[in-house]
Amino acid sequence: MRTIRYHEIAANLRSRVHSGELVSGRLLPSEAELSKKYKVSRVTVRRALELLRDEGIVDARQGFGWFVLGGTVSQSLATLGTIEDQMTASGVRSERLVIEYAFEKANKQVAKVLGVDQVLRVRRINTADGEPFALVTVWCPAELGRSLSRQDVEQSSFHELLDRKLKSATQTITADAASADEARLLEIPLSAPVLRCERVTKDAGGQAVLLAQHVFPGHKTNFVVELSSTTKSIAPSGLRLVD
Amino acid sequence: MRTIRYHEIAANLRSRVHSGELVSGRLLPSEAELSKKYKVSRVTVRRALELLRDEGIVDARQGFGWFVLGGTVSQSLATLGTIEDQMTASGVRSERLVIEYAFEKANKQVAKVLGVDQVLRVRRINTADGEPFALVTVWCPAELGRSLSRQDVEQSSFHELLDRKLKSATQTITADAASADEARLLEIPLSAPVLRCERVTKDAGGQAVLLAQHVFPGHKTNFVVELSSTTKSIAPSGLRLVD
DNA sequence: GGTTCTCACTTGTATTACACTTGTCTATGA
DNA sequence: TCATAGACAAGTGTAATACAAGTGAGAACC
Domain B5-69: which topology? Predict the structure, then answer.
């Protein structure tokens, strides 16, 4: 009976992953090693691995290796990432209005964070029930941004568009006075207190892929952090509208 | 099994920090020494340290060295509760100055949160290197407060004094303009932007036992939320001084 | 005593080099 | 169509090295 080798190998690897032998985050043996072990060519091993990649079980980075994906990740980040989702979830009619969309040279600070020179900068206003409640500026490496049309950005969040790449995020929150630009766009007085959140999102390789700055009018918004000693998982945190 | 050296080293250092071998505020060995000790290049040591810096565990000053930041701590609540601890940990001389200490009738809002009528209200100013950086007001049911003298409150944090009872906390962060009182006490201009954090701490039974309001000058402070899928350790979140 | 200078030591940053990995392509059989 | 073999491009982790720049402490000076 003739069977297809790479399906066999894929099945074998799949069971090894599911059995827990290959834990999430762990590196798989290199293609060369697997090829030697199963006594097949590297191409065949690759076919098997690509099959698993399509299933979302493993992923690879060039020059690094194949590794097992953990299931929880994208979800925990998803809850984090989409501030506008939280709005719609709480019954507020939320809209996105893209006011700027430009490929340009990154300024020094942005260049340092993202590690690239050319970036796509998108500026949006988010409205809740017609009133602006957030001014969002997102910087993204131009290379990644090319595949995103202005319409894409208008309709979906960056976290949706770049979904599978995102891995971790650091968010800093601080209070500041609204700049002239911000005051005008958010329809608040000049120098009114605003909540300024800056988030750096990184991919699996630790490379920063997204720099986002959210500016919220202080009197309208609240950042909530829930901390429970029982749950070790990342505390769910989110933005909340205040009345 | 293939592992990546700098992840190994980072894990090693992380555990040494958590075990208390490397106390908070302490200087780590220099990169050169670590490089010799682990028999890897300085670059590799750096990458490990930078990993830890991203996690908020350590930080470095050029020409000075790497030092442990604060509250590694197995109790996730401890890291949360003791903002002043984080200050001392990062090498800042932090002092507590109690300016008000009174048993009184709770106002409507406080009464609703704590579910009691009589409360102990304590107001403190926290200083960092002599300058005020936080104005803290704590409300606590009078019943619990009776066992706490003014001196207790001055010397220790509420989280230390009520330690074992605390179980979970909800923290809301918002931007606001400084009131006259706050501006005077924090030595900032009237209506300057401040970060206002309100935390409700509950005990094991779900009963609210502490209501705390922290007010930070916006230009001096930063709230950092780290969300990482790779680190199993407690997501370090905390307040960070900015320069 | 107080100020400035110097020097050892630290981190920050940039190179080059090398081994090893995945990504991709072509050619050859079964 | 499937598998093999080989070759090359490109990315990654580590090493070794060099230099810039900040820090702290003590020496030297006024």
Answer: Arc Repressor Mutant, subunit A (1.10.10)
